[in-house]
Structure formats: structure tokens, C-alpha cells
Amino acid sequence: MIKILIADDHPYIREGLKKIISKEPGMTVADEASNGQEALNKAWEKDYDVVLLDISMHGMSGLDVLKQLKKQKPKLAILILTMHPEEEYAVRVLKLGASGYLIKESAPDELIRAIKKVSEGGKYVSSSVAERLAFEIGTDYTKPLHAALADREYQVMCMIGKGKTARKIAEELSLSVKTVNTYRSRILEKMKMKTSSEIIYYAVKNNLI
After folding, report:
1. Structural domains of the chain sorted by starting position, each given as residue range(s) with its CATH number in brackets
2. Overall pTM > 0.70
3. Nearest Cα to 94, choosing from 55, 40, 149?
4. Distance between CA 59 and CA 138 in Å, rounded?
5. Which phi and psi angles does 3 have, rounded to 5°?
6. What is the separation of C-alpha 153 from the centre of its chain, rounded to a whole number of angstroms?
7. With contact defined as beta carbons under 8 Å apart, do 206 and 146 qualify?
8. How many CB atoms lie within 10 A of CB 89?
9. From CA 52, how far away is CA 27, in angstroms rounded?
10. 3-state secondary structure the chain
11. How confident is the prediction along the chain (209 residues), in pLDDT tens digits per residue?
């Protein structure tokens, strides 16, 4: 029996996932978490075969949860399930140790296939992500500017790239506007830019949004 922990801050998403999984023999939703810290606590206290983890949760982000879980339980299969397009986070989370990356809009049968594959120790990615990974691994070039960003800075950079205001970003990430502006300043400094417009242009040009 594949024991699954669902970590997502939207109750209706968790409910929908439970309904899909409950129809599949050999799988069970052993637990659920509504935020990152709760997901960490439960994963440390109990043993699961697969964690379905959302990236954009209020408070501690899924990226932070992923990094901490892989430090404590490196063999735990973590399948990222998110609304973000593959180009935005897929390669990054796979390099951090995620077992797979799946869009929430994916068909139920694809979710089941992904859970089965990662529970057996495999990786689950779409063909487009696989091609991009192969390209990055096989290409020797200077790292892109955004490679210098910490995970939270990268997350904020992508949101700025979408044209979101500091206040909107603060609301979505449960941060203060002051903290978001601090991240923005660090991003501009690390990427040697001066304005948000440059970030937007860079994000579009590099297919990060």
C-alpha cells in the first residue's frame, strides 16, 4: 500500500486529490497538511511513501519544505504538484531533489502514474522538462543570472516577472511588503539590474514565466 501525505493550503485541492487517489487500489492518503510547517512536522513524525507537495503555500514555501525534507529523509519521494507552468520551477525543484513535477490541471490518470513511478524510486517529468534537463546537463555555459538567487528570491523574481506588485506578492506569500521589497533589492543587486522592468524583460526572455 502506497502511503501518501498531501500538503496543500487549499482544502478543495486536497479533497479533490483524495477522491482521485481513493479510487486507486494500492494507494491511500495517510495524512494531509495545510501549510509547510505542518507538512514538515508530519513527515518527520511518520513514514510516508510519497509526499504530494504544493510550491506556493502561505508561510513556508514548498521549496523550503522540499529542501528540509530531503536533508532529513533523502530517500522520501516528493512529487511537486502545482499551478505553476513547468518552465517556471520544474528544473529547479528536480535539482533540489524532487522526484517529479506535475501541473494540477493534469489528468487524474497521469497523477496516478506519477505517484506509482516516484514511489518505486523513479522520476516523473514531462517530455518537455526531460529535454530541458538534458540540454542543461549537456551544455557547458556560464550560469544564467538567476542561478545566483536563493529559492525565495527566485520565487519573488518570477512573480515580479509576471508584473505582480509588492503588495500582491506579500499577500500570496504571507510576507510583509517591506520583506518583499528587501527581496527585490537583493534580486536587483545579484542580477546587476536597476528596475523591475528589467526583471520582467529578463523573465520573459528566458522563458521563466
Report:
1. 2-138 (3.40.50.2300), 145-205 (1.10.10.10)
2. no
3. 55
4. 36
5. -95, 125
6. 14
7. yes
8. 24
9. 13
10. CEEEEEECCCHHHHHHHHHHHHCCCCEEEEEEECCHHHHHHHHHHCCCCEEEECCCCCCCCHHHHHHHHHHHCCCCEEEEEECCCHHHHHHHHHHCCCCEEEECCCCHHHHHHHHHHHHCCCCECCHHHHHHHHHHHHCCCCCCHHHHCCHHHHHHHHHHHCCCCHHHHHHHHCCCHHHHHHHHHHHHHHCCCCCHHHHHHHHHHCCCC
11. 999 999 999 999 999 999 999 999 999 999 999 999 999 999 999 999 999 999 888 778 888 899 999 999 999 999 998 887 665 677 788 888 999 988 888 889 989 999 999 999 998 887 666 666 666 555 544 578 888 898 899 999 999 999 999 999 999 999 999 999 999 999 999 988 989 999 998 988 888 87
Q: Tell me how long the chain is.
A: 209
> Which residues neighbour 73 within 8 Å (Cβ) at sequence distance 6 or greater?
43, 44
State the cell numbers at 38: 505542518
